[in-house]
Design brief:
It is globular, with a radius of gyration of 12 Å. A 3-stranded parallel β-sheet has the order 1-2-3. It is 33% helix and 21% strand. The chain is an alpha/beta fold.
């Protein structure tokens, strides 16, 4: 049995500032855990190359106040 990996799920919706903060958070996580596996839920139109290069998976989330809960 292999050892568990370090995985993170990050959600950034409603305001672009949350996305910018999420990208900075992902960068910080990778500074400490180079093998971290990151999944980002955000709006497709905000995703840039920086996030694409750091995240293993990126999913679109609805522009709704409760999207983090769903």
């Amino acid at each position: 049995m292999s050892s568990p990996s370090k995985g993170f799920v990050i959600v950034a919706s409603k305001q672009w500032a949350f996305y910018a903060s999420a990208v900075n958070l992902i960068d910080s996580i990778l500074d400490h855990y180079e093998d971290a596996r990151i999944t980002l839920f955000t709006h497709d139109d905000w995703v840039d190359d920086r996030a694409r290069n750091m995240c293993e998976h990126i999913f679109d989330c609805p522009d709704h106040i409760r999207s983090k809960m769903y």
